[in-house]
Amino acid sequence: MKKSLVNAIKLTGIAAFAFLALSCGSTKLYSWYDYQEDYYHYLKNADNESLEDLTKTYQKIVEKQKESRGVVPPGIYADYGWLLLQSGKTEEGKAMLAKEVELYPESEVFVGSILKRFGK
Questions:
Q1: In whole angstroms, how large is the CA radius of gyration of the chain?
Q2: pLDDT tens, 91-111?
Q3: Are 93 and 81 in contact (CB under 8 A)?
Q4: CB burial class (10 A; 0-12, 13-18, 19+) of residue 84?
Q5: In this structure, what DSSP letter does residue 19 have?
Q6: pLDDT tens string 34-71
Q7: Where exactly are the structural domains of the chain?
């Protein structure tokens, strides 16, 4: 009886360890590429080169989602849309903002305030 109890405890310990070891692995939901670095450089420098880099990164994120969810991360369409609006590309910007609301309906209030600033 004691031996089976000890074996059951060992088995439980091994199972718990295996579960914890497997659950600690990171699962990437989205592909962010160089977003963080490019956004930082854009905010810091605000020049044409950093704007180009950031635009390319947005395009890459939108076109090439390869992680487990396979969709663009929350806020990217809105961010990209805002950038396009500021650059004078109104129609493209509005299309990105509409995609943000389509994918993430909870962003409708935020996107609505952006569109209100630009007169829809």
A1: 23
A2: 999 999 999 999 999 999 999
A3: yes
A4: buried
A5: H
A6: 999 999 999 999 888 999 999 999 999 999 887 777 88
A7: 35-117
Find tokens 């995609």 and name the residue. Answer: 99
Nearest to 82 by CA among 106, 58, 53: 58
DSSP-based three-state secondary structure for 27? coil
- Annotate the chain with three-state secondary structure: CHHHHHHHHHHHHHHHHHHHHHHCCCCCCCCCCCHHHHHHHHHHHCCHHHHHHHHHHHHHHHHCCCCCCCCCCCCHHHHHHHHHHHCCCHHHHHHHHHHHHHHCHHHHHHHHHHHHHCCC
Q: DSSP readout, 50-79? A: HHHHHHHHHHHHHH---SSS-SPPTTHHHH
Q: What is the pTM of this model?
A: 0.72
Q: How far apart are CA 113 and CA 120, in angstroms?
A: 10
| Buried residues in 6-35 as b, exposed as e (16+ CB within 10 A) | eeeeeeeeeeeeeeeeeeeeeeeebbeeeb
